[in-house]
Amino acid sequence: MRKSYSGEFKAKVVLEILKEEKTISQIASEYGIHPNQLLKWKKRQ
After folding, report:
1. What separation in angstroms does the CA of 6 have from each of 21, 24, 26, 29, 34?
2. Which terminus of the chain, N or C, has fewer Cβ atoms within 10 Å?
3. Residue 19 in contact with residue 30, Cβ under 8 Å?
4. 17 within 8 A of 24, measured Cβ to Cβ
5. 25 to each of 16, 17, 18, 34, how far by Cα in Å?
6. How far apart are the C-alpha atoms of 39 and 21, rounded to whole Å?
7. Model pLDDT for residues 4-33, shown as the tens digit of each residue
8. InterPro entries from the entry (predicted)?
9. Residue 45 confidence (pLDDT)
């Protein structure tokens, strides 16, 4: 079964990416999400 994430959670993570304080890989490992998934969310925002 796939995990689903709320829009609020995705927005929070994307904002963290946009701050550029951490790398995509660091953020991905913190949240347990694949880096490619984070990049897809970033493109949609």
Report:
1. 23, 19, 21, 19, 16
2. N
3. no
4. yes
5. 12, 10, 13, 8
6. 16
7. 999 999 999 999 999 999 999 999 999 999
8. Transposase_8, Trp_repressor/repl_initiator, WH-like_DNA-bd_sf
9. 74
Residue 37 has pLDDT above 90, yes or no: yes
What does the pLDDT read at residue 2?
84
Q: Please report, as a single letter, which amino acid is at residue 5.
A: Y
* Predicted TM-score of the model (pTM): 0.84
**b or e along 5-32 (b: 16 or more beta carbons within 10 Å of the residue's beta carbon)?**
eeeeebeebbebbeeeeeeeeebbeeee
Q: Please report, as a single letter, which amino acid is at residue 23.
A: T
Sorted by where each begins, the domain ranges of the chain are: 7-43
